[in-house]
Design goal:
26% helix; 2 domains; Immunoglobulin-like; three-stranded antiparallel sheet; alpha+beta; four-stranded antiparallel sheet; single chain
Length: 207
C-alpha cells in the first residue's frame, strides 16, 4: 500500500514500538492503512497540515496589523501579495513568527462592500495570497542533515490510535466504531482521554 505523504510515523517505527519483527510482513497492509488513516484524522482534529512543505494560502484582509496563516510552525515567508481595488501589490514590509502570525507595517486592507447604516465592511474575497514554508520534518522524511522535528507526543498519539483499532479487531476495547469505507473514527471517551488533550495543544489557533 505504502505510506501517504502526510503519514506521521513509519511502518518500521510502529512495528518496533509493538515488538513486531521487521521480517514479519503479515500485517503490513493493515498497519500502513491505519497509519495513513490516523494521520489524516489527527490533521482533521488539528485543523491544519503538519508536514514541512511550501503552502499557498489565501487570507482575508482585516484592517489590522496582523494576519495569520493556518499552518505552523511558520519557517519562512516567500511572498505576500495583497489585492485592493483590483490592484495586486507585492508586500515587502512585514515580519513573522513561528505561530503563523505575519505583522505588517500598516494594516492589511480588506476588500468588500460597505453594508448598512454602520457602513460595516462585508468581505467578499480572500484578497491576500501568502506563499510560505511551514510544518514539521516527519519521521519518514528525516535525514542526518534534516532531522525530524515532529513532536514525539503526536507520534505517540498515532501509536495509540492504531493500536486501538487493532484491539477492536481482536475483540478488545478502544474504538466504539470504525468504518473503513469513509474512515470514520468514533472513539470511546475513556480510551481517548490520554490522546485528545495532547492533540488539543497543537490545534490551529483561531482569532
Amino acid at each position: 500500500m505504502g505510506l501517504a505523504d502526510n503519514a506521521l510515523t513509519t511502518l518500521g517505527r510502529l512495528k518496533q514500538f509493538n515488538g513486531i519483527t521487521e521480517a514479519d510482513a503479515s500485517q503490513d497492509f493493515k498497519l500502513e492503512f491505519l497509519i495513513n488513516s490516523a494521520s489524516q484524522e489527527i490533521e482533521n482534529i488539528l485543523g491544519r497540515k503538519l508536514k514541512k512543505t511550501q503552502y499557498i494560502e489565501k487570507v482575508k484582509g482585516n484592517n489590522r496589523l496582523t494576519i495569520q496563516v493556518k499552518n505552523y510552525p511558520l519557517l519562512d515567508v516567500e511572498s505576500v501579495h495583497i489585492k485592493i481595488n483590483n490592484v495586486t501589490v507585492n508586500e515587502s514590509g512585514y515580519s513573522y513568527d513561528e505561530s503563523g502570525i505575519i505583522e505588517g507595517v500598516r494594516p492589511w486592507g480588506d476588500m468588500g462592500l460597505c453594508h448598512g447604516i454602520s457602513n460595516f465592511m462585508v468581505q467578499q474575497s480572500y484578497n491576500i495570497e501568502v506563499i510560505y514554508t511551514a510544518g514539521y520534518v516527519l519521521p519518514k522524511d528525516e535525514t542526518e542533515e534534516n532531522p525530524r522535528t515532529l513532536p514525539y507526543d503526536i507520534e505517540a498519539a498515532i501509536f495509540t490510535m492504531v493500536n486501538g483499532v487493532v484491539a477492536l479487531a481482536d475483540g478488545g476495547a478502544g474504538l466504539k466504531s470504525f468504518a473503513i469505507s469513509d474512515v470514520r473514527w468514533e472513539w470511546d471517551k475513556d480510551y481517548m482521554q490520554s490522546v485528545r488533550p495532547t492533540l488539543m495543544r497543537y490545534r490551529a489557533p483561531r482569532f
